[in-house]
Design brief:
Layout lengths: L1 E7 L2 E6 L9 E10 L2 H7 L15 E7 L7 E4 L2 E2 L5 H4 L10 E2 L11 E5 L3 E3 L6 H4 L2 H17 L8 E5 L3 H12 L3 E5 L3 H11 L2 E3 L11 E6 L6 H8 E9 L11 H6 L3 E4 L5 H13 L9 E4 L3 H9 L8 E4 L2
Parallel strand pairs: 10-11, 10-13, 11-12, 13-14, 14-15, 16-17
Antiparallel strand pairs: 1-2, 3-4, 3-8, 3-17, 4-5, 5-9, 6-7
Helix pairs in contact: 4-5, 4-9
Length: about 325
Amino acid sequence: MKALVYTAPRELMFREEPDPSLADGDALLRIEAVGICGSDMHAYHGHDPRRNPPLILGHEFVGELVGGSRAGERVTANPLIHCGYCDFCVQGRNNLCRNRSMVGMTRPGAFAELMSIPERCLIAIPQDMSARAAALTEPAATALHGVMLAQRALFRPLAEARVLVIGGGAIGLLAALLLRSQGCRVSLAETNGLRRASAQKHAGCLAFDPRECPPAAGGFELVIDAVGGALTRPLALAAVQAGGVMLHVGLQDWASEIDMRRLTLEEITLVGAYTYTTADMRAAVDALYRGVFGDLAWIDERPLEDGAEAFSDLDQGRSAAAKIVLRTH
């Protein structure tokens, strides 16, 4: 099969690779489309010690089942492979599974013509669902999961909240689209001018450069840090009002300091949101299919063989798209 292989920091090669081997309980997928995630970019930069080259990355995908009783059925899947028996799995919180592994990290991913994954991870989709929408299930589920957690922590209904989203990548933009669909007033901070214009056009939110116009101190009931950087964390905390909620979903940098004294004195709720549960993924499929996230016209689709150039464009800030989806055919 042909695959896009991460071979070294800032190096990807489109080359021939062995077809996937199948363990007991595995399904074989012929990949139709796969999105480039921020964590794929993290690996590309050589900053993820869990993703070691040579490795086929990619965990946001839609494909067609090959062989078996469901051959020909189009599906997506939960790339977080959970054990099914730990406390978190039994509770339905399988994103926190103590024994989890992951497609595109601990086993070959979806930047390839074929990929294997345990059958228990498969997620059904409407068979007429577009490839670009289905490939967006994983990041949409991440946005949905985070907004759901924030909603639980807010003192007043979500629709009443003034919201600041920091970061105009896929998670930030999808969160903004979801919040706008629920009536929120959304501002979006993004340093890339191309992405700001795209967010303004497609999400209908006020997009600005926080370096030139810092957000108002204490001006928002909910602040979502979709970057998770050493610079964005204090920015997020400064922008949330007393009694408000700061949702931390980005994972750009490792540990960094925030003002814990202000967090305590002003009763600000800090919520961490990690990925999604299987239930979130099913809900995301439904929301995407019903158009809750809009027409997805902001997505850039390219052939898989052009994947190295797509990574480079994202790295250099040359793409206005918050998401590039690679198509195998």
